[in-house]
Amino acid sequence: MLLTITMTSGPGVPATDLGFLLHKHPDRAQEFEQAFGTAHVFYPEASAERCTAALLLEVDPIGLQRSRGKNSPDFSLGQYVNDRPYAASSLLASAMNAVFRTAMRGRCPARRELADGTVPLELSLPTLPCKGGPEFARRLFEPLGWEVSAEPVQLDERFPEWGDSRYVTLTLRGTVRLADALNQVYVLLPVLDQSKHYWVAPDEVDKLIRAGSGWLAGHPERAGITRRYLGNRRGLVRAALGRLADAEGLPEDALDLPEADRDGAEEHERKVPLNERRLEAVTAALKREEARSVLDLGCGQGKLVSRLLPDSSFTRVTGVDVSHTAVAIARRRLKVDRLPRLQAERLELFQGALTYLDDRFRGYDAAVLMEVVEHVDQPRLPALARVVFGHARPRTVVVTTPNVEHNVRYEGLTGLRHPDHRFEWTRAQFREWAGEVCDRYGYAVRYEPVGDDDPEVGPPTQMGVFTR
To answer: Could you point out which of 15, 131, 134, 313 has its C-alpha 20 to 30 Å from the C-alpha of 274?
Structure first.
């Protein structure tokens, strides 16, 4: 089975920089032993204009059989007669995780700006099992910003009347962050195949949340992806959807309401989702401060922007995110090309880093950091504060962030609420940081709870409204 990753050159970036991103030198062919075979990494082409890395997995059928646990889903003849040596599947996903683990984490100390940025990529899988056909492959990858080519493979070219097999030849093209591309393929390979070569254990939830960080929670097929990835194991699916819901600030049933429950859904009182309450609280704070122009820093997929834009009291609404993919998804969700003229004139979306001085951030009444600071490495927080409070210097800054004290109220949660969180603050820690910012940059701050204010552990989200 084969995966090829092709990068073309960009402004000031030769295509051979793919070697830096993958941590695999283009001049070397490397082998990596796996429990089920051998993974080979080599470069069929490597020039400044175009560079291709290939991951070829040779499956050892005997080694694969020995690596299976007693609970393996395969049995009988299926253990010996299958497509595993030839078709991309969870075996290839496992090899990707072993061979490209550093790249999938987005780490490249020598070229950090390269790893954090987007590059023109083409990923190809010649033979991919796809239960649901080419249309299902497009439904999974197109919402992520890919241009998708999914061509069915005929059962036998000599007998076209037999029709197509369940396999497709998949090619993805787009300008994306390499780590995001690898993680998306890693998760969606077993989803397309709807099978795994090993028993699905509880630690698969952690793998899914980690690899799906930044894109899965906002995917329109997230419930189906989760079910297929976790082998329809109800308990694991509910746990994963709960953690995805927390990442989005939504109740679990907002992500996946069982079909049997939908007819009577109106009969049950629903709690207002935490994410909705955050949006309401931030909007209310902006209105109280009479902000007319708003800069949403770390806008993600544009939820706050879409909330503010229809309100004509906001004469200028701008969304900024470090992720090119997030900005592209925000454009699609907002249907930018079909917005009413007056709304389109008030909207701006662009990519930008919050820890670097940028004159485009200046000239706004208010800036918003909604669930953003906890995604920034703590040593870089002074740089963020300098950019927002010192350089952009709006009259109002609204900051929301999780209250880690409230985490004890989330059943089954261990550690932080999201795998991309670098930290989560107590109420005292948030106030200490806010006080230092105010002293340095000449702001005052008031604190407001978001969500139910628990008398023992406080609200799930804490909000600070900074005014100059």
So the answer is: 313
| Separation CA 260–CA 68 (nearest Å) | 35
Among 190, 222, 256, residue at a domain's last position: 256
Residue 373 lies inside a defined structural domain of this protein: yes
pTM value > 0.70:
no
Q: Which residue has the higher pLDDT, 466 or 209?
A: 466
Mean pLDDT of the chain: 86
**Are 45 and 101 members of one domain?**
yes
Q: Is residue 262 part of a domain?
A: no
Check whether residue 229 and residue 139 sit in a common domain.
no
Last residue of a domain, one of 155, 179, 199: 199
- The least confident of 228-242, 352-366, 451-465 is 228-242
The pairing of beta strand 147-154 with beta strand 461-467: unpaired
Residue 284 is encoded by which pair of tokens?
Answer: 């209310």
**For the chain, how many structural domains are there in total?**
3
Domain assignment of residue 204, yes or no: no
Average pLDDT (1-24) is 92
Give the residue with greater pLDDT, 398 vs 189: 398
Strands 347-351 and 366-370, sheet pairing: unpaired
